[in-house]
Amino acid sequence: MQAEVIDGRRLAREVTDAVAAEVATMARKPGLAVIIVGDDPASHLYVRNKVRTAERVGFKSETIRLPADTSEADVLGRINWLNSREDIDGILVQLPLPPQLNTLRVMATVDPAKDVDGLHALNAGKLTQGSRALIPCTPMGCLKIIRSVIPDLTGCHAVVIGASNIVGKPMAALLLEENATVTQTHIHTRDTQFICRGADILVSAVGKPGLVKGSWIKPRAVVIDVGTSRVEQPDGTVLTKGDVDFDEAVKVAGAITPVPGGVGPMTIACLMENTLIAAKARMA
Ligand code: GUN
User: Fold this and answer.
1) Buried b (16+ CB within 10 A) or exposed e, 69-94
2) What CATH number has the domain bearing residue 64?
3) Ligand 1 within 6 A of 111 CB?
4) Which domain CATH number covers 169?
5) Is residue 215 part of a domain?
6) Does 129 reside within a domain?
7) Does a structural domain hold residue 125?
8) Cα–Cα distance, 228 to 98 (Å, whole number)
9) Fewer beta carbons under 10 A from the terminal one: N or C of the chain?
10) Is residue 233 located within the same domain as residue 152?
11) In this structure, which residue's CA is closest to atom 11 in ligand 1?
């Protein structure tokens, strides 16, 4: 039997429509500022998509584009300026950053109340203690997708492949909060395939196209593919590929997210939701 292919665009539209409806009732438009450093084409594409969605839901949006050799003092100064502004509710620094910039120091400079990426140590810490603060957008998007097919995760075995600060670690923390039994695998894990075969829910956030084979998947499992690798084809065109071998996995899984059109749109939708949450908290 073929797996259900989850339509991330449709779910994202439900989230952004709800955000837009609420924004329409607000006295002041929520403000989202995005900082992007350098000229990585994929990052610029992601930022354009975020800005377009922010404008569609009715936010005021501001993009600060900086050259790749921008100093850390310059970036931190701009973040401090955004922290101080009344009209800015959310600040997002697009990652990855060029090597002269210390990502943790940059994240630590964003006011936790405006940290719509949920990457400040305070928000990351709150998540591990179960107090729902601003949650990182990609894991939150994955959780909404999972809940659309499994409303109650209690007792499910969830396996997260990858342990990054931006996806893997907060994903595992969120699933634990949903009462799943969570296993996290990473680069040093000895037998990832064996562990994956026991997963009712499998989230892959590695960035290696085709890593997860059909044989790694438990029949009827829910498979969430966070990978977004840009792969050049023999004819020179560039395709976005997930971590999961989709053609194999779709024959085994119960439900699966496609790439593109799965997690990506939900990440952006959750950024809109976080900006609304931050704005409401600041206006209260
Ligand atoms: N780069 C890739 N995904 C993300 C994200 O969710 N937030 C930020 N800030 N940068 C990213």
Assistant:
1) ebeeeebbebbeebbeeeebbbbbbb
2) 3.40.50.10860
3) no
4) 3.40.50.720
5) yes
6) no
7) no
8) 20
9) C
10) yes
11) 95
Q: How many CB atoms lie within 10 A of CB 229?
A: 17
220 Cα: distance to centroid of ligand 1 (angstroms): 30
99 and 148 both lie in a single domain: no
Ligand 1 contact, 123 CB (< 6 A): no
Nearest to 57 by CA among 237, 279, 264: 279
**What domain range is 271 assigned to?**
27-119+266-283
Does residue 96 form part of some domain?
A: yes
Centre of ligand 1 to C-alpha 1, Å, is 35
Which residues belong to the active site? 50, 94, 117
Residue 126 has pLDDT above 80, yes or no: yes
Q: What is the pLDDT of residue 212?
A: 98
Q: Considering its fold, how many domains does the chain have in total?
A: 2
In testing the pocket of ligand 1, which one of 51, 63, 166 has its CB within 8 Å of the most ligand atoms?
166
Q: Tens digits of per-residue pLDDT, 19-37?
A: 999 999 999 999 999 999 9
pLDDT of residue 1: 80
For 56, the token pair is 């569609």
Contact 188, 221 (CB under 8 A): no
